[in-house]
Fold this sequence. Notes:
Helix 1 packs parallel to helix 3. The mean pLDDT is about 90. This protein is an all-alpha fold. Helices cover about 70% and strands about 0% of the residues. It starts with a helix and ends with a helix. The protein has helices at about 5-25, 30-45, 55-70, 80-85. It has 4 helices and no strands.
Amino acid sequence: MRRKGEMLAELERMLNESLSAQAKGASYSKLAKLQGAVDGYMRALLDGGLATRQELLELVASVRATVNGPATRDILLEKATEIAA
Length: 85
């Protein structure tokens, strides 16, 4: 059986592939296949007691930030007078 660290590294690779494909505009069928594999792998880790929900959430957030950038960013709002004009 593989070690927990190896399994989490594999999940990280799968997440990176899935999110990168999404960012590049891959077809729906490819995205569905990749996302299904990620979901199944995560379910197996949870059901097997090899990872907690918190660990998986942190891993997903980390990979998502790496691929797509930070979850939030600063934006400049226009003044109400500029919007009304």
